[in-house]
Hints:
This protein is α/β, with parallel strands linked by helices. Helices cover about 40% and strands about 15% of the residues. Strand 1, helix 2 and strand 2 form a beta-alpha-beta unit. The chain is globular. About 45% of the residues are buried.
Amino acid sequence: MSNSVDAVIKAHRLLPVIEIQDVAQAEPLAAALMAGGLPVAEVTFRSKAAPEAVRLMRKTEGLCVGAGTIINVEQAELAISSGAQYLVSPGCFPKVIAYAKSKGIPIFPGIATPTDIGTALECGIDVVKFFPAEAYGGLNTLKSLSGPFPQVRFVPTGGISEKNLASYLAHPKVLACGGSWMVEKSLLNEGKWDEVRARVAAAVALVKSCTPAS
């Protein structure tokens, strides 16, 4: 990872996974994240609004903005040209990884099996997204995967909430967790920015109470 992205993720250990349907949500959301004490965002490329949302959110000083749900090189190119500082994929796609590396952009490819991890390592990646975490056995599976791959750090995503966040972050191989409970799409659509800020602040406080990763 680049130094700046690495520093932000190590410091905050939480990636809010955001689906934006309306670009008008981008700037107030960025403000709510910053006010809540979480200067990092993962904007999923599940909507046409995502590229412009990334551009707008990058205007917020100090906010590290990445692009998620990147499944092909075309999306990766669009995300990077929009200003994304890191990429997240739901699977392990060697062409996407190679493109990101060629641009000097950090990428977290998704893994669910030892073979996936092996592919990531062959591509020169040792920080991976464990997805969908809870559906694939949760923390017990992550512990099993970390055994034969001690050099790998994980960013579990999928089914993570305030109820299980602490248990994941307590594992020494978990770098950070991805989640959407503090930035639920319904809150964004209804413009409930105070609620977003409050949920973000609560999540930040919870992370600070957890055992730091080694």
